[in-house]
Amino acid sequence: MLRRRRPLLRAAAVGGGAYIAGKHMANKANEQAAYEAQQDQRISDLEAQQGPQDYQQQGYQQQGYQQQGYQQPPPQYQQAPPPAAAPAAPSVYDQLSQLATLHDQGALTDDEFSAAKAKLLGT
Prior knowledge:
Blueprint: H1 2-50, H2 52-67, H3 92-105, H4 110-121
């Protein structure tokens, strides 16, 4: 009698494990499908916001390329980005703090510090 129960118990454990694994895989597949549907909806919303004019213009451009014998549109060269603006001059506060640091380190005397501070403040 005990010999009979072991194979049954083993089969039940294996079958139960397979059932749980299958259920987990099905849930994962459903989650993936829902995620992809959500992404598709977002993409279609963005395309709807761009409007049909953009697509019509692109269609006309593609037809023109095909009529001229191009497989793909010719490469479009982008303009170089404008040169970076020169860094802004340090603020008066920053310059005063640098002067104070130099004065504290002993690099500037009291007279030099006062003269530089007056020059910065315009007095």
